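idk why but the lab printer keeps eating my pages so im just putting this in chat instead. protein + adenosine-5'-triphosphate:
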Amino acid sequence: MSQENAGQNLMDKLISLCKQRGIILPGSEIYGGLANAWDFGPYGALLKNNIRQAWIKHFVTSRDDMVLLESGVIMNSKVWEASGHIMNFTDPLVDCKKCKKRFRSDHILEQRSLEPGYAKEAPVDWSTMRCPECGGELTEVRQFNLMFKSTMGPVEEEGATVYLRPELAGGMFTDFKLIQQANRKRLPFGIAQVGKAFRNEITPGNYIFRTREFEIMELEYFVQPTAWEKAFEMWLGVMKSWLKSLGVADNSLYFHEIPEGERAHYSKRTVDIEYHYPFGLKELYGLAYRTDYDLAQHAKHSGADLTYQDPETGEKFIPHVVEPSMGLERTVLVTLLSAYHEEEAPTAEAGETDRRVVLKLPKHLAPIQVAVLPLSKKEELATVAQALAQDLRQKFTVEYDDTQSIGKRYRRQDEIGTPYCVTVDFESLNDKAVTVRDRDSMKQERVKIQEVREYLKDKFGS
Ligand code: ATP
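predcted complex ->
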């Protein structure tokens, strides 16, 4: 099988597993769907929330130089004028005159640049370019603003035009001074947030890789002008340790130093962290040194004083900013891709094996941490099993399942990545013990009911 087919195959299998198991569902499906809109089902919502919480711990609450913010999705439109989004947050698009499909012209060029003999530096003559799908002629390149527009106020004609935020940084910059003063912060310090962003993408797709509604986990780290390089290296290190904690292998990542001509004009260094997705090497996260550009722009447009006074030297200046920016859905995607395994595993029949699909998610991210599985629905077993499940719920996310054969129930839990299954059998009534099965090794251990909670706490390291 070619590499491309193998990749597509893996994506198809993951998408189908996620739908079957209620992890990620096609949005508005009963109405025929909505292009590239996905809902996070019961397990997906838990997984996403665990990742969100783990991110907040890793980047914010485990440090004393970070604070969390939750700013509005809709802000004063002047924010987007100052940041340049109204003028410049555009993607270049071309239409195919024959099949009417729409493409990002930079994506077409990216594709072309991989062809042998393609001269990247030569000026592009669009009349010679052809549609990648049907070979038809393409239109001229047009700029298309990606912001979703709406109207605020009860009467549409009189209301003010507002935008759904296309990124989160605006809130961190507009609230910078208030937070710095109210929270008595000294440089270096950072403001982080996690929340929804909206972009009217021209070509959404590749599952949850590029959608029009998504979440960003982002922070602005404010530093003295001379301290940015140290902060940049520090955050690069934190992002690497974060990716490790998700179970993402080093060799699936590529750290792309963006060369000078391709960086935003104000940025002195940008690194894109790229990932070898089954559909190609593409951006996962970004890390950028943004100088004092954003605060200076907001100070200029709002008239507010956004300088910081060094308490020791008395010097006043506009802080410089290092910004790590991470998509939550792309994080969910690489976590799932890293966790997805298929392997031969023994069945209940002695000496026989079959293929099992297992999500080897990091334990702290698994949507269900412990499954309680009574061997039979009989009341004497159900009473013991339900009491145990209720006790474990004080500490863990627990699922109680008493349907189908035990083999099928194990496989189901493997497919949603549950690290431990606790089986209550008839012997449990006599020896007051249960069997705990480990997802990855499939080893089983007999543990006293009274000690199960402590045993599992130990396993989760909590
Ligand atoms: P791309 O080049 O892929 O369009 P970008 O460079 O415009 O991305 P940023 O503006 O840096 O992306 O956004 C921050 C992060 O948000 C990205 O690193 C990515 O993880 C995520 N992201 C951006 N656009 C989308 C989208 N349409 N759907 C899902 N995640 C996205």
